[in-house]
Amino acid sequence: MVKNKNSIVSLMIAVCMCLCLLVAFFSGGQTAYAQSILTSDGVYSVPIDLSGLAMGADNFSSTATVEKSGDNYYMTFGHSSTISNLVLESGNKQTGYTVKTEGGWTYYTYTLSEKRLSSELSFSAYINAMNRSVNLTIKLNLSGATRTGDYSFEGERPAEYVPVITTSAGDSEMEKGSVYVLPSATAFLGEEECEVEIKAFYGENEVAIEGNKFTLDQAGEYTVVYRAESSAYKTNLGNNAYSEYTVTINSKVGATTLAKYEDDNNVFQEGTAIQANSISSGEVYNLATQKLKEISNYFSLINITYYAQSGEQVVPDDDITLYLIADSTFDRNQIVVYHMADDGTLTKIDCSGYGRYVRIQTDKTGTFIVCIPGVDFVMPMWGYVLIILGSLVLIAGLTTSIVLIVKKHKKKVLQDNVNS
After folding, report:
1. Which residue among 40, 60, 186, 294 is the one 20 to 30 A from 286 at the CA level?
2. Mean pLDDT for each 10-residue chunk of the chain (420 residues)?
3. Measuring CA to CA, which residue among 288, 278, 299 is closest to residue 183?
4. How many CA atoms lie within 13 A of 254 on its CB side?
5. What predicted TM-score, i.e. pTM, was given to this entire model?
6. Longest distance between any two alpha carbons in the chain, whole Å
């Protein structure tokens, strides 16, 4: 009897220990470190407290590389290929950074002030396998920093904060000899609006822009560079803080048209041209990704504008027939098309398959989303908790049943012995 009671007690203790481990695993802990200032220029290896990350710590750097040069600090922090879209939270500003990929890991080098380096740093990231965004905080254990070498970087590094450029421009493929009209752009650094300069290049040669457009005279690759500057912050070389956004236009004979239109209602004047840009990065893409996270994992973004022969942008005042190219892997019977407004509002538009394209009737311009509805199922955190708890309860129940059966059997044997 005592032995059976001890077994039950041991089982309950084990269940409690498992619950404690689960709580620790999913909630993380807090660790305080004494802070120290990196007093001399150089390169340091600094341990990172990842207790602010509930799970998946192995997918993030356990140590950071911190480079000190005068009053400038540069922290390198990385993640494995299972993570994407890592963003350092910076209020209404954008922290300056560079990024590189090495050995399957992506490393971000952020420009930080001494104060930020000593504080908790909050990030958002996308867990690819779990199909969800998570928030995490890290803390550098500066008291455990180890100097590994002299500061040796040569060149310009970003300012602590840089402008954020927003534009509908994106990579495109257009017919040689056609005219490319430059999509507009805005840029802000916090509340400051920054001027955006636009340049176009064919190879290394700058192309003349006239009336906000240029002609694709040559076959090959054209590059358009949007650049915004602010004097509010400086790079390590003392230059204005800046950001650049680059798009590529592939000029060729027989180009694949991203979009085309038919104007059966004579909405436009003769000679009106359509311009389509594929959007795969930038602020517009990030907004679409956020809005589609519960709708679709498989989508493409195309920005549509129309231009009169004079080069002036025009907007239809009635429906036209618009054809948007669709990914070759998309089932034309399942495709759904949305229009996304500047504020992220999605409007579903009736559509039908048309060979390589999907056909819609619309009077809208701007960003269109061609997608296959559906989000890959991923077991939520609480689902794993319930499975583990359910298993523990089942084990406890089975153990208790076995104990009761054994007790009953022993009692019967004892009774039989007494009767005999």
Report:
1. 60
2. 49 50 43 59 94 77 95 95 91 95 95 94 84 84 94 96 93 90 94 97 95 92 97 97 95 86 91 88 86 87 89 90 91 92 94 92 95 67 50 63 64 60
3. 278
4. 0
5. 0.72
6. 114
